[in-house]
Amino acid sequence: MRKEISRDIHKMHAFVRFKKTGEDMKSEREQFMAWFEPDHRIMPLTAQFFQKRFTGMDWSIFTPTGSASWDGKILRLGPGVDKVEVPKEELDELWRGYYKSIFNPARLKVKAMQAEMPKKYWHNLPETNLIESLISESRHRVQEMHKKNLRSSTSGGKNPYLKHLRNLTSHDEHIVLNPDQHIRQPLSRIRELANCCQACPLHQNATGTVLGEGPADAKIMIVGEQPGDQEDLLGRPFVGPAGKLLDHFLTKTGIDRKECYVTNAVKHFKFIPRRNQRLHQSPNLDEISRCKPWLVGELREVKPRIIILLGSTAARSLIGTHFKITQQRGIITGTDLAAKVIATVHPSYLLRIKDSQQRQHEKALFLKDLQLAR
Ligand code: URA
Questions:
Q1: Contact indicator for 238, 262 with CB cutoff of 8 Å
Q2: 271 pocket-lining for ligand 1 (C-beta < 6 Å)
Q3: Rounded Cα distance, 341 and 358, in Å
Q4: Which residue in 341, 257, 281, 276 sits closest to 306, CA to CA?
Q5: Backbone conformation region of residue 60, classed left if phi is above 0, alpha if psi is from -120 to 50, else beta
Q6: Rounded CA gap, 315 and 344, in Å?
Q7: Where are the domains of the chain?
Q8: How many Å apart are CA 18 and CA 201, to the nearest integer?
Q9: How far does residue 266's CA lie from ligand 1's centre (Å)?
């Protein structure tokens, strides 16, 4: 029973879709409503999640067995209602755009997807009518990519998608992640969309999405792993201890951080709670790839001349899982990401080295990599 309820709660967190109904002139707060049909009476168990997640807007959620509303001050629980008609409007388009951008066919088995997003939810989800077309479109694109022999265009012949491409022909349900389906939006819109990202479970515990910051026409883009504890709280990348060390080395190198676009491969903080601390956990491959559309979206907008990849998560995201920082650090050739890509260690690695001689040695190498970038 507990499992059933947890699953129902999880589905509700993921599949509630708000529609905008208006704006309160006095408070200038936007108002939204949503209709959802859970299997159990879980409205009281989920209300706080929505309060925390959508705290900046007024909303009401109606289900047949309970309702909840939030006005920025008070969370009210109420009785269930018969199905309410929620208005149709532009948010549906937003959802569809968003879903298209996070749709990751390479990791998707249609059956598994339908198990995750059971059909009974589909009629209330604006994005579901895209699923069939995205799948068939992807198949077509994959065949095209095969024809063009994508192998030669990225990563010096070690295209990380190639395995999926091969699988696709033999297993129809595996569809390659098509880079063209990554989000193509202005940075401000990417930020808006990424703020509601629920593509992987990391959004559940993080305070919020931390997207990159810096000029939209920066020549240098610095890509780290994921926000840490302080970044998560402040909503800005590289502001904690690793960020301070990075700043120190950038200054030493003569690179002005204000002129760089600084971001991360993964946009949510992954951690485990330990007493009153949140201990960093490295994101896994699935989380990295689900977050990649946001990073590629940033890349496509900023179009940096050089990308500095800090640590293996950033390298895994943009170069491939085979990449070994310690053996392949420095300039990486043959990528179509930017004119130059440089991979180096992550500053938090430097912070962790206990042996002072080794630390000095690694710091000198790090400085050299940044100088190369400059
Ligand atoms: N480490 C990262 O990789 N990114 C941050 O933003 C902070 C710490």
A1: yes
A2: no
A3: 26
A4: 341
A5: beta
A6: 9
A7: 2-78, 94-157, 161-373
A8: 20
A9: 9
Q: What's the gap between Cα 212 and its chain centre?
A: 11
> 123 CA distance to ligand 1 centroid (A)?
39
Distance, CA 192 to ligand 1 centroid (Å)? 21
Tell me the residue type at 166: R
Which amino acid is it at 247? Answer: D
The DSSP result for 28-77, as a single string, is TEEEEEEE---SSS-HHHHHHHHHHHTTTSEEEEEETTEEEEE-SS-EEE
pLDDT in tens, 191-240: 766 776 777 888 878 888 899 999 999 999 999 999 999 898 888 999 99
Measure 190 CA to ligand 1 centroid, in angstroms.
19
From start to end of 71-218, where are the E strands? 75-78
154 lines ligand 1 (CB under 6 A): no
pTM, entire model: 0.55
Q: Is the CB of 283 under 6 A from ligand 1?
A: no
161-373 CATH fold: Uracil-DNA Glycosylase, subunit E (3.40.470)
Using a 10 angstrom Cβ sphere, with 0-12 exposed, 13-18 middle and 19 or more buried, the burial of residue 171 is exposed
The pLDDT score that the predictor gives to residue 164 is 32
DSSP for 190-204, please give it.
HHHHHTT--SSGGGG
